Amino acid sequence: MVKHAACCDEKCVHKDLVNKVVGELPDEDALYDLAELFKVFGDSTRVRILFALFDSELCVCDLSEALDMTQSAISHQLQILRTNKLVKSRREGKQVYYSLADQHVVTIIAQGLSHIME
Fold first, then answer.
1. Angle, helix 44-52 to helix 60-67, in steps of 10 degrees
2. Interval 14-61: pLDDT, tens
3. Domains of the chain by range and CATH?
4. Which is it for the CA torsion 103, 80, 34, 108, positive or negative?
């Protein structure tokens, strides 16, 4: 049997609160983009890559070695992370180095980890 969340025993809509919530909701496009961003965090390989990049930038070879994965697999996941603006890259000669895009990424990961550790 599926357990549902508790519901009100009597229907009583608090219009002032509902109007406030509706007025503060982001538009549908923003909500869609946010949901898509969180899907990126739904893959443990991508989260491992982000954690690996917490303290320093690394090239695909370094990430491959550290995470015991093929360079091809790392490269594929990095492309998804780049597309979603979670990592950035820079070229130095024949090497391409990756790092976290900004402090927001660190905050998202750190707060998520803190939440699950409670």
1. 120
2. 999 999 999 999 999 999 999 999 999 999 999 999 999 998 999 999
3. 27-117 (1.10.10.10)
4. negative
Concatenated DSSP letters for the chain?
Answer: --------SS----HHHHHHHHHHSPPHHHHHHHHHHHHHTT-HHHHHHHHHTSSS-EEHHHHHHHHT--HHHHHHHHHHHHHTTSEEEEEETTEEEEEESSHHHHHHHHHHHHHHH-
Contact criterion met (CB below 8 Å) for 50 and 108:
no
Look at the pTM and tell me if it is higher than 0.85: no
Lowest mean pLDDT among 9-13, 31-35, 54-58, 75-79: 9-13
